[in-house]
Design brief:
single chain, 9 strands, two-stranded parallel sheet
Length: 181
Amino acid sequence: MRSAFSNCRDYRVDIDSTAIKDAKRSFTASRWSARLTLLQGDVLKQNFSERFTGIICNPPYFNSGEVSQNAQRATARHTHTLAHEQLLERCHSLLIEEGQASFVLPTPEGEQFIAMAKQQGWYLTRLCRVQTTPKKPCHRLLFTLSKVFEECREEHLVIHGDASGYSADFITLTKDFYLKM
C-alpha cells in the first residue's frame, strides 16, 4: 500500500548556511531523502514553480529588544531579516486555497502574529498552548492558519508532567523523532 504522501515534494528553505549544512546531513540519513529539496536563501525571494498544501515554519520571533552580536543567532531569532507581516503575506501567496500554514512562536509574539494574521484575512484553525511544567505559564504557541474558515481546535501540552520526566502526551508526540525518548 502506498502512502498518501509518497508523491509529495518537501522543500526546506533556510537563509543560514550552517543550518543548511546541518540539514544536508539529516536529509542524507532520512528515509524520505528522495522527496526532500533543500534551498538556501530568503523565503521571501525564493522562486517556486508550484503552490503548496502546507507550510510549517519556525520563524524568527523577537520583534524588539537587544539584537545578538552573533549574526547567525540574530538572524535566527530577530525579525529584522524576516518580518512577520511579510512572512504571512508570502505564506498566503504560496498556499493553495485550501492550504494551511503552521507556526511555532513564543506566547507574546504568537499572540501578536495571530492578531496580524486575522487582520490579513487568515483563520486560526488550531492552537496548542505549551507549558514546560504544569506550574509554569504557557511559553509557546503552536498554531495553524488557513485561508478557509474552520472552527479552531484548541489544545494544551505540558512537556514535563512531574519530577519523573516528560509527560505522556509529550512522549507520544515526539517519540518517533526525538532522540532523548
